[in-house]
């Protein structure tokens, strides 16, 4: 067990500031939200992050005047941000501008049919009727069931701690009544006859790294989130939200340090007492919060500490989310081209369940692909130079932990060309004549940039036995004074989930010691 070495300690306490000190590892959205909530509780907070800007996977890159939003592109429950700001005596909508999207996204199939997801119930029924009139009644039932799961799974379960076994036992009857053992796809298949609609109302777990045929049907709640709150885009991207969060932390007297990589969490008598950076600097703390992936937190940051639950063997047996291949690219002079291509488009390959099986279960790089295409410049002109466009095309792929993983150093460019070919054939004809800036992220990038186990895109997969109490707890089981936030802990991935994880955290962290 590594202890604090007084000779290396950097006690960066500002003069006259004797508040209890909290160190947050990682400036992702979960870490920043945790810092804001701890600052509101009265802690002096230091956030440490290895990247050069806040936001983690929600940060951005700039290439030749194009802003590439690296990770999440939509805000589905703005209220979690508004609640967070309000608890810090601030107003979210004064710091961040949100634009409501309509439609939320368009889904296209190889047969030429399409489906536009909208907030208005009548418009949604019309979209369903356009594909399968007999499924309209199934839509109504599905949305009612989605609302019930939202009220229980998000507003109740997702906003309170689930770190005690008793917390789980109390909710088991509700899980049973709502058939949480059934998968999202299986539930959608009970309500829709048309295979295209089964896809359209079951693919959402892919947004948080889950296999729709395996993830618990509690996650059909996403359909209610979209219906109740809409889908929004933040001007400046999610990176603008992260920057606004950093500003709030600064007004609280907190500090966000970039280019500061934590090498180890330091313990004393089984309690977290600080961190050591990769440059050997030691920062003491009364409370340590890790927004790093739980796999990295336990296998690396606590490598010298005995672990009872999250051992290396346990982590090896854990089911992780899929990997992601993302091609970010700019186009010149295209603002008026492709008028039928909106902010979000989903291009389905010829298979749905078969492709999912290849990605999650077989770990096989398939010959076909489905793409999630993001074109923010149709909503936010700041994303690209005047008259130009910014895009990204995301393809789910196997993570690096399967047998015979893809050698992305060798195959990344070949796969990018395949993605480009699909885009030119199905969505963006003539794309090759307009390409400018280009950047590719593979599972290797996620492993190296975000320290994501197996290069996965969304941490631990949200299967039923990896959700709620079964996920790494927000209050660590391995060390006193250590807490976890972010996609890999309760309640899970996605912007509403990681922001809510900080709300849960605030209920578990003790109040700071009050000083004159």
How would you describe what is shown here?
This protein is an alpha/beta fold and 516 residues long. It contains 16 helices and 19 strands. It has helices at 29-41, 78-87, 92-95, 121-131, 136-156, 165-177, 184-191, 195-200, 221-229, 238-251, 294-301, 312-317, 353-362, 408-426, 443-450, 495-508; strands at residues 21-25, 44-48, 60-63, 66-69, 98-100, 105-108, 114-117, 232-234, 255-257, 262-268, 271-277, 282-284, 287-290, 323-331, 344-347, 371-374, 389-397, 435-441, 482-484. A seven-stranded mixed β-sheet has the order 7-6-15-16-17-14-18. A five-stranded parallel β-sheet has the order 9-2-1-13-19, with helices on one face. The protein has a three-stranded antiparallel β-sheet with strand order 10-11-12, covered by helices on one side. Helix 1 (29-41) packs parallel to helix 16 and helix 5 crosses helix 9. The longest helix has 21 residues, at 136-156. The protein is globular and about 65 Å long. The two termini are 35 Å apart.
**Gyration radius, to the nearest Å?**
22 Å
Strand line-up across the major sheet: 7-6-15-16-17-14-18
Q: How many separate helices?
A: 16
Strand tally: 19
Sheet with the most strands? 7 strands, mixed
Shape field:
globular
- Compute the average pLDDT: 94
What share of residues are in beta strands?
A: 15-25%
